[in-house]
Design brief:
single chain, 190 residues, alpha/beta, Rossmann fold, 5-stranded parallel sheet, 7 helices, 5 strands, P-loop_NTPase
Length: 190
């Protein structure tokens, strides 16, 4: 089983992957590590860390897809998290491996960003240490989340938004993942 966690930066994807690892003992793979490994290790990898997420995603997807396919074919569970995983990529692979992938797309409502922007920025280092200064404005964040929401809605994927209280809202997502895991396990046992 593969669990995919995607969404805009600072939504808690890496923290969620870490908590799922601790609960289910399923390792996770951070797309940020792949991105930086390629960028630092290959002189002309075709992107820079400052490129748009779509540019980086298009470069990384063939590798990520190969990792997912290999994991499924080897019957190895894996959590894959990162902001470079777009719904149209997953639609392709979910068709190839029905019932093997649980995907979650995360975002914030405009209301939440407006009310909690400082908290969002202050909590971005919950798992990873990010030493750079955040240069995106509250309007940049709102625009990014609006764009990602539209992409998810157009692709008809399960999209979750944090709207009120992060801890309460995120619990619904953990419950969704737990139910999907249970359902997939029941199907596999038949």
């Amino acid at each position: 089983m593969i669990i995919i966690i995607s969404g805009n930066s600072c939504t808690g994807k890496t923290l969620m992957a870490q908590k799922l690892l601790e609960k289910y003992k399923i390792p996770y793979f951070s797309i940020d590590l792949l991105k930086m490994g390629l960028y630092r290790g290959i002189c002309d990898c075709g992107f820079t860390p400052l490129d748009r997420n779509e540019v980086i995603g298009d470069k990384l997807w063939p590798i990520i897809k190969g990792i997912i396919m290999t994991s499924i074919e080897n019957k190895q569970s894996l959590i894959v998290e990162g902001c470079y995983l777009f719904p149209h990529y997953l639609k392709e692979i979910e068709t190839m491996y029905p019932g093997e992938i649980v995907s979650v797309f995360l975002g914030f409502t405009n209301k939440y960003i407006n009310e909690k922007f400082t908290n969002i920025i202050n909590n971005r280092n919950a798992i990873e240490t990010r030493s750079y200064q955040e240069e995106r404005t509250i309007n940049d964040f709102i625009n990014e989340h609006n764009e990602f929401r539209i992409i998810c809605q157009e692709a008809k994927v399960k999209y979750f938004e944090i709207d009120q209280d992060y801890e309460e809202d995120i619990k619904m997502i953990y419950d969704y993942i737990e139910n999907k895991i249970r359902m997939l396990a029941e199907i596999a046992d038949r």
